[in-house]
Structure prediction request, 716 residues.
Amino acid sequence: MLHTNYLMKLTIHIFLLLLPCCLWAGEFDGVTQLAKRRVPWLANNLVFAKMGAGSKEAFQLKTQNGKLVITATGPNAAAVALNWYLKYYCHRSMSHMGDNLSPVDPLPVIKETVTIDAAAQYRYALNYCTYNYTMSFYNWSDWEHELDWMALNGVNLMLVANGSEAIWQNVLRKLRYREKEITDFITGPAYNAWWLMGNIEGWGGPMPQSQIDSRKVLVQKMIARMQALGIEPVMPGFYGMVPHDFNTKTTGHIIKQGNWGAFIRPAILDPTDTAFSRVAGIFYEETKKLYGKHIRFFSGDPFHEGGITEGVDLRKAGANIQKVMQQHFPGAIWVLQGWQDNPKKELLAETDKSSLLIQELFGENTNNWETRNGYESTPFIWCCVNNFGERPGLNGKLERYAGEVYRAATGPYKEYMKGVGIMPEGINNNPVSYDLVLELGWHTQPVETDKWINDYATARYGKRNDNITAAWKLFLQTIYSNPGYQEGPPENVLCARPALEIRSVSSWGKLKKGYDTALFVKAVQAFAKAAPAFGNSETYKIDLINFARQVLANRADTVFASMVSAYKEKNTTAFNTAANAFLSLHTLTDELLNTHAYYRLTSYQQQALRSGYTAVEKKNNLHNAMMLITYWGENNPKEDYLHEYAYKEWAGMMTSFYQQRWMMYFDHLRNSLAGKITTPPNFFAWEREWVMQNEPIKGTVQPSPSLDKVIRKIVF
Prediction:
């Protein structure tokens, strides 16, 4: 009897001791499942424990009894801890351009406790545009990968901009809009970013009801997973955007916003008008019904990129936008983009600034946080764009990222500096940039990029290698240096709409390479020499193709200049030689890119198809996808500024689209040299015809030579 009582007491005692662990285990279930998905070889050797709450997030790492013990303030810090162990001890990594997560045995042992404190309250991710240039056709598997990457890299605040169609449909129905009017307002799946930012409406639609419904369910699933990983959503708020014909539905003060290029912009319902509170109330209540009542962050930038503010009291407008948001979601924080002159000073003047968060969006080139005195004493985060239109190219100002984040965090406005963020228009590029910026959120001291880059390369490819170390040292001096003001990577003339004078491929880009291209070739040669040691490395192959692709793009600048000179000198023989050499670069680039599915047009066409659940959805998805990467949208030749904004260097496009355009143009120039009367090709019409003809996926992928053989043609 005594023995039984003793066992019972001991059992109760042990249960009480273990109870907190059970509670902690529940809190870390999301990270446990992440580990099982991505590193099952490690998952059974993980133990999670709760760290006492402090003013900042933190984590600790230590090996105990053969297990990796992660002690963290919460699930997000625990995910960062897992990534820290993978990166700095196992030499493993995850990215948008390949994963290096193969098993490690034996597991590295951490004998002394490693403690890391967060330097940033917020680690933010995504731009509205990312949802289209990268994520238009993500399915749940894609989002699982995305959210796991976000958590591992410490993102605790992420924009969610792909489920607003259902909200707006419900709002407009309550405002007596007919179904046809609603579908005319909502864009297609590849254009919702510019709709939500108040730039366009309707283009790429109509979106079928089945797709509106499936996108709603997908976002609900995303938000649930984000909660498990400690990532808070930033949802679109109501800032006054309404259909351009909203004046036919109300007597309220409607400010027409004119055009955004060739597109009719949605109108703005004056935030100071009594109708604003009513419409905003409907919007927020519908948001609650679909996505929950615990949302804390809302985005929304009225008068974005040239919006018309005439007749609006901006001070009262900003105050009322915030007031109504707070009425429906008490404690909400309004997130605004620090882009160009936004947010306007007047808009912030009468707000409660403690409930605002400004994104220094373009930090790699701007310092508005400084020139505006901490955005007039408003909480802000330092962000980089790095990429526009998800255009290809190698680019990233690594030293500036590290230097500016530290300067903002320790300077006169440090009280208002609340974190870091990545806001790429497309994220399938330059993973080193995103890894560094987000990791800066966990460094309280300056980061030496030359040392950091060695650790990054080791984690990316799985082991140290002298050739790779030498290559990345040169990459830091060239493609990942500070080449001055530039909106995204230098562009590739091979992909430009043909002309004799070309300064850029896209309207706001640049061809000029702000680095030593000869030194870059040496870097790629060193990187290529490591191939025998990395034959099974997916990340190495993807990067080698990308580096070699850039070598060909840079080479094209010289060949293009020779062709132009020959034409101006009326030297037909030299012109033909240069023109043929130029076209051969298209062919070789296509051959190179075709060695991996990551760089094939068909891969992204298939993604668009998989995202559709009906024949109508699949067809429109493909149409949206093909428009976006070529002429972008609209059919007004006088407003043709967006073509090539999102151009892609993909196998299947290099020869069928870009090379074909140049061949047409060279024929025109040859006729001119021969003294024949000739009319320049109508590229505007040809591009639209090409999209229609190439929407059906044609045949199977053509076999190409081995990557090794193609590389030898390029860099040796």
